[in-house]
Amino acid sequence: MSTPWVVTDSWTMTRRELAHWARQPVQVVVGLAFPVMMLLMFGFLVGGGRGIDGEYVEFLVPGMFALTMAFGLEATMTAVTQDLGKGVIDRFRAMPMSSSAVLVGRSAADMLQSALGLAVLAGVGLLLGWRWHGSAAAALTAFALLLLLRFAMLWIGIFLGMVAGRPELVQAVQILVWPVGFLSNAFATPQSMPGWLGAVVEWNPMSATATAVRDLFGNPAGAAASAAPSWAAEHAALLAVGWPLLLLAVFFPLAVARYRGLGK
Q1: How many CB atoms lie within 10 A of CB 137?
Q2: How confident is the model at residue 225 (pLDDT cuts 50, 70, 90)?
Q3: How many CA atoms lie within 13 A of 150 on its CB side?
Q4: Where residue 3 falls among pLDDT bands split at 50, 70, 90?
Q5: Of 263, 262, 241, nearest to 103 (Cα)?
Q6: Which is more confident, 138 or 226?
Q7: Whole-number Å distance between alpha carbons of 167 and 53
Q8: HSE-up (13 A, CA, CB side) for residue 31
Q9: Which of 7, 35, 165, 236 meets the CB 3.0–4.6 Å disulfide criterion with 68?
């Protein structure tokens, strides 16, 4: 199949996903508002900041960026299982179109929504007093790392959505997503946790991305200057790239193979 045909079909599928935004505005608004509510809740209601050397809001906002990118896989899973349950994907597979267009369109639309969500969350963070203190290039690199994490989580969501098959089974995955998401340094430093737990938290892919973007934004990394950084903290940028690439290397081919095997 020629490249122009693949691009055209993929853009058609992307426009289909974007059209859902106009038809389901409440769902879009809720998706954008939920991370904002989480930010406000942990920033003002729950509080926190144990072990934070600096303003807590400047520590919290980058952590919320990373957490939001990870939690996005739930929306991806739900959309995939809904299409499967309604037989939409089966109809697409029977049409004379590129077999990759459905997955490309799904991923492109989700990445656009994730970029919009980051922009909204960053705007709220600025209103709360969060600032970046580095260069514009460093800030753009930080947002690129966040979107790289989202891209990796997106393909995990596509694969798990096709494995689950039904929207009801997404709830079972959500039970696992939330503990893994909170088992990170989004809200507190690993140094403030029990030793074994802090070690697990430091190697969480979300923790690596959160630490790397904090460094790029010039925000407090969490631990006091006197605390000796761990290997994971010193090489957070490397892990922030390595973890998503590893996840992509595993789940991208699994998602493609699962899609090709649907209906067989």
Answers
A1: 9
A2: very low
A3: 27
A4: low
A5: 262
A6: 138
A7: 43
A8: 23
A9: 35
Collect all residues with Cβ–Cβ distance below 8 Å to 143 and sequence separation of at least 6.
Answer: 118, 213
Q: Which residue, chain included where needed, has tokens 């809904």? A: 82
Residue 88's CB: how many other CB atoms inside 10 A?
A: 13
**Hey, what amino acid is at 130?**
W
Backbone φ/ψ region at 257: left (φ over 0), alpha (ψ -120 to 50), beta: alpha
Tokens representing 17 are 């996903």
pTM of the model: 0.85
Pinpoint the alpha helices (H) of the chain: 3-23, 25-40, 56-85, 88-93, 101-128, 136-164, 167-182, 195-202, 205-217, 231-234, 236-261
| pLDDT tens per residue, range 78-88 | 888 877 777 77
Structure tokens given for 15:
């426009």
Of the listed ranges 11-20, 185-194, 211-220, 229-238, the one predicted with least confidence: 11-20
Of all residues in the chain, the percent with pLDDT exceeding 70 is: 83
